[in-house]
Amino acid sequence: MGRVSTKEEVQAFCTIFRDHHVTPDEHGRLLLHGLITATAPTKIGGDLHVLARKMVFNFLRPVFTKDMIRREKAVAHDERLKSKAKTACDLACFNRDGKKVLGGSFEGMTFRQRRSPDFFMPSGCGSFFP
Predict the structure, then answer these.
(1) Contact present, 104 and 87 (Cβ < 8 Å)
(2) Residue-level pLDDT, tens digit, the chain, 130 residues
(3) How far apart are the C-alpha atoms of 110 and 108, rounded to whole Å?
(4) In what side-by-side order are the strands of the sheet with 84-94?
(5) How many CA atoms lie within 13 A of 20 on its CB side?
(6) What is the C-alpha separation between 81 and 86, in angstroms, rounded?
(7) What are phi and psi of 76, to 5 degrees?
(8) Residue 101 in contact with residue 37, Cβ under 8 Å?
(9) Positive or negative, the Cα torsion across 109, 113, 116, 118?
(10) Distance between CA atoms of 1 and 53, rounded to whole angstroms?
(11) Coil, helix or strand for 130?
(12) Is 5 exposed, middle or buried (0-12, 13-18, 19+ CB in 10 A)?
């Protein structure tokens, strides 16, 4: 899975939020604002039907338009409750060269009627919840 952001997306973001990343580099690319880069892993929570309550992002390398960003996840903890589950997940995003551009995690809740049958996955990553 991957995502490529376009110049038009960056320009729209800059217009809405009055950001300054509007000057192309020597390759004609625009620097993506961190919040645009952070949209790539939010699909993980959406696919798992998680209502996030905490998200942590560590921006490790710049990302530009035309860069393919691939996301990976590891469910670190899943505590089943009566009608919902607490979920924590580590995440990472890589560029087309395999270099990690973003790392992070999220915590949240998912409700049983929203989960897909394959929601619970093996973890082995530790726990975010006390």
Answers:
(1) no
(2) 677 888 888 888 888 888 776 788 898 888 888 888 888 777 777 777 788 899 999 999 999 988 888 887 766 666 776 677 788 888 888 998 999 999 998 888 887 554 444 444 333 333 333 3
(3) 7
(4) 2-4, 68-80, 84-94, 100-111, 51-59
(5) 0
(6) 8
(7) -90, -30
(8) yes
(9) positive
(10) 24
(11) coil
(12) buried
**CA 40 to chain centroid:** 4
Q: Which residues contact 28 (CB under 8 A, 6 or more apart)?
A: none
Place of tokens 């619970």: 120
Q: Which residue has the tokens 């809740």?
A: 109
Give how far Cα 102 sits from Cα of 27, 73, 119, 121, Å.
22, 12, 24, 22
The model's pTM: 0.72
